[in-house]
């Protein structure tokens, strides 16, 4: 069907490339372009020989002119941005200049402020409309599949959704004392930031990891879940009409939190630049350099992830509760594509989003979140491409008030 330019060559990009190659009828030709070309070449070497033609290139995705040259040279139908959130705007600028569709998995975050918000990318809406091209934002798992799950619940199960709890559980263990499952810098910035949830039309702010609850997850069991701010809360609070509350919960083990506390207390998670031996460095970037590369966790990680949405609302005049989730096995992912489940659950939806933009099913000039589109082809593709989902009615619920079910962590 066409050509995709994949920017980035890290954990998530590796899965995107594997999945595009599996889906060679759609992705006839791909280019992997990243800062370190040797990583792109290594991926090409591993996957060359199938029907998809693979090219590689070096690119600095902070540099719009370089990106424009690259896009003009390859002429892709879509750019899949799986570099870092810092590059979202430069890549969107290049897509505008070349009239190329855009897909990413994480919203823009300025390097010097740990504050991710859609406002910068939503501000491109009119320009994308005028250029006649689609930007699909946040097509990973969360954000991404969680928004598609919500749109599916809205379309097929509810007249009005009132409450959503998104629960992201990683029951996997890599056996290392401390490591993050995706880019450590992005991951730690997210977790050490203040928590936030949306209630009755307003944001309620919490201390970082201030509230926890215990939830019994299918195929994983009981886990401590901590309330975090997560980027899909912003778009879902805006897009789901009648919503009264939305919260996001993530599981963390005690060992992980103890390490994180110590690192925070000694200043290692700070993004404030300090002078070190005549050079300005951000402590968190130094920390990233000494932590295990998430891409190396694949062979070590055992266990499963479970990510899903617990939804409450009204159907045919009656109250209804509903749960939709995916369970993903780290070892199975490793056997299939050489990555653990966190990269897998992000890379598969990125490929699916790009496919739907390319085949026209999710093409609409402007800047959109996943829940703005018909969820059906995405839900079907999840089953086909490795992330089958399950749905149940009357699931266990998380108390709407913190005072009873939630406790101060
Ligand atoms: P990695 O750090 O493993 O990979 C990032 C890649 O981007 C690296 O190959 C890196 O190059 C490249 N890169 C960074 N800066 C530039 C630049 N200026 N120019 C060109 N290439 C650059 O990260 P992950 O694969 O773990 O994560 C990728 C994205 O996925 C992130 O945005 C992350 O937030 C998002 N994500 C989304 C999730 C979701 O569910 N929605 C879940 C997990 C991740 P180099 O190799 O040289 O360092």
UniProtKB/TrEMBL annotation:
Cross-referenced SUPFAM superfamilies: NAD(P)-binding Rossmann-fold domains
Pfam families, A to Z: Sacchrp_dh_C (PF16653), Sacchrp_dh_NADP (PF03435)
Coiled-coil positions: none
InterPro entries, per database record: NAD(P)-bd_dom_sf, Sacchrp_dh-like_C, Sacchrp_dh_NADP-bd
Residue stretches making up the Saccharopine dehydrogenase-like C-terminal domain: 140-386
Domain Saccharopine dehydrogenase NADP binding: 5-136
Top-level taxon of origin: Bacteria
Protein name as it appears in the record: Saccharopine dehydrogenase
Organism: Solibacillus kalamii
């Amino acid at each position: 069907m066409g050509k995709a330019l994949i920017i980035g060559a890290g954990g998530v990009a590796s899965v995107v490339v594997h999945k595009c190659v599996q889906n060679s009828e759609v992705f006839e030709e791909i280019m992997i372009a990243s800062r370190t070309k040797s990583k792109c070449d290594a991926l090409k070497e591993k996957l060359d020989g199938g029907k998809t033609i693979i090219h590689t290139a070096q690119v600095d995705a902070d540099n719009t002119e370089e990106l424009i040259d690259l896009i003009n040279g390859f002429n892709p139908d879509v750019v899949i941005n799986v570099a870092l959130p810092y590059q979202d705007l430069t890549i969107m600028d290049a897509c505008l200049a070349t009239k190329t569709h855009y897909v990413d998995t994480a919203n823009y975050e300025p390097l010097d402020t740990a504050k991710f918000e859609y406002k910068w990318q939503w501000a491109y809406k009119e320009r994308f409309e005028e250029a006649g091209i689609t930007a699909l934002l946040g097509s990973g798992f969360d954000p991404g599949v969680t928004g598609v799950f919500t749109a599916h619940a809205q379309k097929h199960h509810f007249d009005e959704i009132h409450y959503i709890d998104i629960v992201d559980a990683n029951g996997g263990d890599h056996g290392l004392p401390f490591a993050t499952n995706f880019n450590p810098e992005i991951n730690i910035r997210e977790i050490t930031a203040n928590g936030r949830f949306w209630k009755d039309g307003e944001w309620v702010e919490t201390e970082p990891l201030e509230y926890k609850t215990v939830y019994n997850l299918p195929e994983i069991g009981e886990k401590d879940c901590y309330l975090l701010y997560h980027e899909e809360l912003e778009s879902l609070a805006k897009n789901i009409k009648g919503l009264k509350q939305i919260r996001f919960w993530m599981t963390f083990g005690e060992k992980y939190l103890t390490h994180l506390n110590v690192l925070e207390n000694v200043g290692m998670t700070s993004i404030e630049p300090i002078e070190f031996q005549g050079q300005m460095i951000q402590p968190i970037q130094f920390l990233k350099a000494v932590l295990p590369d998430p891409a190396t966790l694949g062979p070590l990680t055992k266990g499963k992830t479970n990510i899903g949405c617990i939804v409450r609302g009204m159907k045919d005049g009656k109250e209804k509760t509903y749960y939709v989730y995916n369970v993903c096995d780290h070892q199975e992912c490793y056997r299939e594509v050489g990555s653990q489940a966190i990269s897998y659950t992000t890379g598969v939806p990125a490929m699916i989003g790009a496919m739907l933009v390319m085949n026209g099913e999710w093409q609409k000039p402007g800047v959109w979140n996943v829940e703005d589109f018909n969820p059906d082809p995405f839900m079907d593709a999840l089953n086909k491409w490795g992330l089958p989902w399950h749905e149940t009615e009357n699931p266990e619920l998380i108390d709407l008030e913190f005072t009873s079910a939630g406790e101060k962590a």
